[in-house]
Amino acid sequence: MAMNRLAPPRWRLDRLPAAAWAAAGLAALAALLAFVTHAPAAVLMVLAAAACFWAFREGQRFTIASSSDDQIELVGLAELAPLLEALPDPALLVDSEVRIVSSNAAARRQMQFEARGQFLTSILRHPDVLEAVQAAVRDGETRAVEYETPAQVDHHTRCYVAPVNWGADRAAMLVFHDQTARISTERMRADFLANASHELRTPLASLTLLIETISGPARDSATDRERFLGMMQVQADRMRRLIDDLLSLSRIELDEHVPPSDRADLAAVAREVADSLAPVLRDRNVKLDLRVPGKPVRVVGERFQLAQVVQNLVDNAVKYTPDGGSVSLEVGPSGDREEVSARAGRRWEEAGRVALLTPAAAANRSYAFVRVEDSGQGISRRFLPRLGERFFRVEREMGDERGGTGLGLAIVKHIVNRHRGGFLVESQPGRGSAFAAYVELAEEG
Ligand code: ADP
Q1: How many Å apart are CA 356 and CA 287, to the nearest integer?
Q2: What is the pLDDT of residues 354-365, one digit of tens each?
Q3: What is the pTM assigned to this prediction?
């Protein structure tokens, strides 16, 4: 059949197995012995038959026994299968006709094919990959090709294509590396930098404008100067808050993979935060309803970070509640993951609700929750899943560029994630919003 088969030709002298040579030698020795000793022809035949039998058995391990060309090719290359199988990434071996002659389980699983012998194009059509395969088998070139497979989440793959010499012919080996996680991390980092610099540039631009105004048209008016200095203060405060939140977030992320081992009293944390907010509450005429058990609610957690969670949630509740409204802050021990989500996050029948973070299921784990409820305007259902995304602000989506940093809930989410806890929101426009976080209860004793 085709000249460019990849299997070694069957009976090339340099490929005759050692066993065949040994058998030939043995047969020659038997003939010599029979000649010298005048042994009967039967003895000679028995010796020759034994030599042939042994040669055949040994030879099977080295040579290709089939007479069909296709068989020859597949049996020959099949010897490479254990090598491919040992690779953790999907790998294929294709012949010069671009037919798959060997593959590993990872490749078959990912590309969903079973049979070898089919053309590569039936499972992969990317022109750059096919060109790289041609270059490998034709010119012995090695190439790395990156390509994207559109799906619900786009997949990015880097495919290394390298020539493999097999007898006088060439095959190409393709190894696929999934790059999706790396590319999405790179994109996130780039987006984060773009967002952070945009957020910082806005107050900076206002400050520059105010400085120009004070040193120009408003230079001679004490009242104007006073007013513009006040506005500068607001912008400087906004920049400081942004930088504080950014630093806070990066500190939390730094050890997010190390769960805390300390113990903290969630009830005491809530009481302290409520005390520290008393002046703001008075200022805004917002009533705080504190529902915290008298005895400690001991959880596995870092006290400072848990205080940050409660503080950010209560800050928001107060900020987004109109003057004269009310906010409630509740702490309680609850049950397992399902019980705590129901108790802390499913109270308002007509509310939209989303679990922003859910811990992995774990047997024998009980949680304690903190729930902060407000009587503000609520959040539209469509925005709920985006809460906790960095820089996401409902007001901005509605065309209002003012407001907070959009980092408060992201900080909460990352702290809760570090604590391997959960984070929920339920909200009903006109009624208010409720955010709840839960973390693992510490064992008594
Ligand atoms: P910000 O500093 O803007 O408050 P957050 O990350 O704390 O940033 O909140 C993100 C967005 O979520 C806010 O801009 C606001 O649109 C919305 N939000 C958060 N908490 C509440 C709440 N209690 N009521 C209404 N909207 C809220």
Answers
A1: 27
A2: 999 999 988 889
A3: 0.69
